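Quick question about two entries, pasted in order.
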Amino acid sequence: MSGKPRLTYCNGRGRMEPVRWLLAAAGVEFEEIFLETREQYEKLIKDGVLMFQQVPLVEIDGMKMVQTRAILSYIAGKYHLYGKDLKERALIDMYVEGITDLMQMILMFPFSPPEAKEKNLDSIKERATNRYFPVFEKVLKQHGQDFLVGNKFSWADVQLIEAILAVEEKIPAVLSGFPQLQAFKIRMSNMPTIKKFLQPGSPRKPPPDECYRETVLKIFGK
């Protein structure tokens, strides 16, 4: 095995996409193994590789890490994206947890029944514009700095730019009432590591399509 982190998941966004984002933002190259069959997944379980019989799986620093939150906090700490002290880390945690709640709605959207899609899209828009984005608009406006915490690039910034772009894919004008977030999006998108990740051919995955949905249901479906 090379020294690069190795990521095992489906060839799509899902719960692994924030891990890809964070590694890419830190300038870390990684390898990927894509699950395509239920047999591959069952073999990982049989071999005792998955602590809780779940992916994402990230092999890093001699560990086989599972649980998305644990993986992300380890990477954030390792690459100095987790604040300078406990107070900053607590802020980052709060911001990340909030963004994760919003992203959970986006994560589940492709699996909505057709008759529920419009209602679920309205829910995403309502939550983004009334609950989550106003928090970050206010934070950026109040402290007048480029980043969310400590005027230093952190895990919270990475999660937020990922969420902004994911919501915009579904609701293009969602930032129309948030000038601070519009400026934040431009700043983050022009950071060299993130700019590289946003280019065609990067490990960033496209929006989930029907093929991805079917693959997930085939591998993990009951």
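Here is the second entry:
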Amino acid sequence: SWNVFEDRIVYQLVVFLQPPPGYSFRLELHGGTHLPERCCNIRVVQECTCSRTEDMFCFLHPSDNNQSSPLLSTLCTGSYLDVEEIACWVQNLVRSAWERLPQWHNWQLRVLPSSHSCRLLLTGPCQVQLCAVLVFAVQQGSP
């Protein structure tokens, strides 16, 4: 969605997170109440991949090349997705990618403080301001 707020255009984008191969996301119940739109406990569960393809090793059954995803160790606390870690990781990724874009010298990028989303403020020629808010979500019922 987008909206004009005071002197800037605000875009809100939902970014659906997908688990890496061999994993799935499970929404946890809060005291018997299921509120997926506000759910903060998203468990990362390892899945057996033996029967899916022969060239993909299984995370659950012992093997010589059994390894976990380095991305999960960065984005999780224990067995749960950590939205603050995800926001920080995406903010750093956007900062480093922005420096490599040829347009960076025409627009100024500021990453605004946020612990549960990625908020970006772009200021362009003639002081045009665009604010992009990336909100992270998982799709219920996805593998």
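Reply: Residues 9-138 form one domain. The radius of gyration is 19 Å. Hope that helps.
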